Amino acid sequence: MAPVMVLWLALCLTGTWAVEKSNFKTCDQSAFCKRQRALIPGESPYRALLETMELTNTRLTLQLINDKNKVRLLLELYRLQGNMTRVKINELKPLKPRFEVPDVLVKEPTTEPMSLLSQDENGVVLSLGVESQRVILSARPFRLDIMEGREVLMSLNSRGLLAFEHLRIRKDTALGSFCLSFKLLVTPFIPLLPKQTAKEDGKDEEGMWEETFKTFVDSKPNGPTAISLDFSLPGVEHVYGIPEHADTARLKTTENGDPYRLHNMDVYKYELYSPMALYGSVPLIVAHNTERTTGIFWLNAAETWVDISSNTAGKTVFGKMLDYVQGSNEKPQTDVRWISESGIIDAFILLGPTPKDLFAQYASLTGTQSFPPIFSLGYHQCRWNYNDQEDVQAVDAGFDQHDIPYDYIWLDIEHTDGKRYFSWDPHKFSSPKEMLQGLKDKKRKLVAIVDPHVKIESSFKLHDEIQSRDLYVKNKDGGNYEGWCWPGSTGYPDFANPEMRELWAQMFAYDKYEGSMDNLHIWNDMNEPSVFNGPEITMIKDAKHGEWEHRDVHNLYGFYVQMATAEGLIQRSGGVERPFVLARSFFAGSQRYGAVWTGDNIAEWEHLKISLPMCLSLSLTGILNCSLSHAHMDTPRREPWLHGLDNTNLIRDIVRQRYTFLPFWYQQFYHSHKTGILLIWGVSVMNFAGRLLDSLTWMYFTGKDLLVHPVTEEGVTSVTAYLPGKDEVWYDIHTFKKHNGGQNLYIPVTISSIPVFQRGGSIIPKKLRVRRSSTCMEHDPYTLYVALGNQNTAEGEIYIDDGYTFNYEKKEFIHRKISMANNIISSINLAHDAHFTTQSWIERVVIIGATKPSKVTLKAAGGQESKLDFEFDASVSLLTIRKPGVNAGEDWTITLK
């Protein structure tokens, strides 16, 4: 698996301990979830006031009214560039502003014109400008339907589960009673518009103004503020996304259990196949069938629950505007309902229609995966904790002694001086620069943990500065919020404040982070935030970030921590070097700042297995740099040479194989960074020839050219892999044996084999001279693996830059297309305005599925021709052309005769 996965970072714990589920809420224990889930479908109180509609060139607005309490909402509808639609719903006149998520969108989305097609007393029809796409807005009850031709692509509030708990004054307080009496006294004299004033709601329910979980009391000064909206997806059986959950990639129905929960928490040794919330949250659902891929991005950072239900879409009638919709034929339908505790409804509807289109649409909103330095794609050695500098040096030497390459060694919290981050234990790590320099001399690097909680101690400079600048999160009474974490009594920096993020970034400067060097990179753990003595092991919701409660921003906390850390590493290099930052907690947009990991799992086969759909789900939401190998401090040492000679040899082989694929991995990351295209894909999402198999949960693609069937069960001697595409051919990368697509393939396996196939018609660059680290391989030559398709053609690319700076943004790179057709292999420039030089050259070309030529000739950039040596293995139709000797950045052709 190693050569075709990114980073598998898992906290490997020995034993079968399980999470203590009673520490975490169910929906019934979450007042707003229980309240909203009790709503009855089909009884929507909301209608659209069509007389309030205003349509400009960029947006439609109109008011919605709740006929039960007469509260008015403001609906905003936007058509966005790139085949997207945005729907926002807020109170028309809230008592105070409601939280709207900042900083996640890379920019304010570009709008495009909408036009009015028709209108009557029942609703309006708007053109979305893309082919025959339209929005039908029905007035009573309020409902939105997005259509293309005669097909309904998506419906909003079709089940009538829109809910918007408006801000109000509590009636059972002195102030509330006074305000109510005053309002009743003066109302006759205030010229209010008809039905503009909210009718008092019914009896307050338990948990609306205060909520208790175990011993923790969450005061709710703003009262109930939950929002909810349902989306119906006709023709859709399979939906994916909304990480992070330890579950299959395909989301399950939640009708007989809890909804999926999005609430970032420290869930130690999490349960498998569960909708429980974990460390990160990305509120994006991807809906996929053989005809179309669509998505829903729910931009809300509060605690959120997502209900999934499946049924059939029967006959639907929207009045005269929808008379032409066929309703007699039942078809599959999936319904998705979002429930958030606070904020506003801000939903982006991504209309695809292809998976590639959808991922580009989402990337245009939240950004693409940051382009990692190439050395971060190598092997990482990590545990909690390496004891001291001598231990680090011994482990480093062990890799050399056993001829196993690696790029990073990691240090957990014990390397610090008393859990004061940005520091070193003065006894165990007394000379950090000497340690770092020793690694740098071997072109290796170190990752140190820097957690986002600060030891409360007057002699600690970081604490003193945060406190003096009043940048800690506050408790509900205005004092600094204090919790308990690794240092003991702990303060939590208010990372939602840009001033705090700037202070944090400055801490990574070499003159402030004493002992640090340019080969030191950073790990942000515990950034949910983790609070050992807090409710659900996190921060109380009534804590304050400036004017906002923590309940509004909770899922953004880890996002902001990683943002500030990445910016700090960029600043320390003067804006030159790309950072490597790994974080445990994340949100939509976290991909812009680095990698994530899948948290505190257990070293068991089932946890290994579940890491695959977890990373695939993250990939669907743009977070492509997923996970490494880590070990708890109480586990035995697990360096690769401590498992016996046979296992050491296996580990060496697989790690070295990974290093040969680094050029391919790096190239895939470049494409993902530039376009938003996925790095790893589930086979069902690739959807070859319309085939959609849920049984393919455990298979995945790397790019579009490598297909992997991981072995994730103990003692397995065979697997059955589906090779997609009836017109495709696939080659085993180990044996070079050819297989036709569109079939299930029985594959014997051993502990040393991982089924991986290269797609016919592809060319993959590799470097076969494996050295002690990726940086040591920078100038080494390439081998091109050309896998011929049914037409005896193939295409691929080579991408080369310096591997670690932002100079590629200045067009300092090489990007070439390698293709084979009509027995000619050629390399042509794809970036004529770019400039870069490389010492790497083409060492060999391996053609899989070839016939034996009589002669092979090379024509180099200067026009000179030469004859090349070759070998042909008829048993597997493998042609190896040796030492073309041309520079990897130049034009050349090889002709087979």
UniProtKB/TrEMBL annotation:
What positions does the domain Glycoside hydrolase family 31 N-terminal occupy?
76-307
Q: In the UniProt record, which is one GO cellular component term?
A: glucosidase II complex
Q: Which UniProt keywords apply?
A: Glycosidase, Hydrolase, Signal
Entry's Gene Ontology molecular function annotations: carbohydrate binding; glucan 1,3-alpha-glucosidase activity
Which InterPro entries did the record assign? Answer: Gal_mutarotase_sf_dom, GH, Glyco_hydro_31_C, Glyco_hydro_31_N_dom, Glyco_hydro_31_TIM, Glyco_hydro_b
Q: Which residues form the signal peptide?
A: 1-18
Q: Where is the Glycosyl hydrolase family 31 C-terminal domain?
A: 699-764
Residues covered by the Glycoside hydrolase family 31 TIM barrel domain = 370-627, 629-667
Q: Is Glycosyltransferase given among the entry's keywords?
A: no
BP GO terms, sorted: carbohydrate metabolic process; N-glycan processing
Family designation: Belongs to the glycosyl hydrolase 31 family.
User: Could you identify this protein by its name?
Assistant: Glucosidase II alpha subunit
Which gene name does the record give? Answer: ganabb
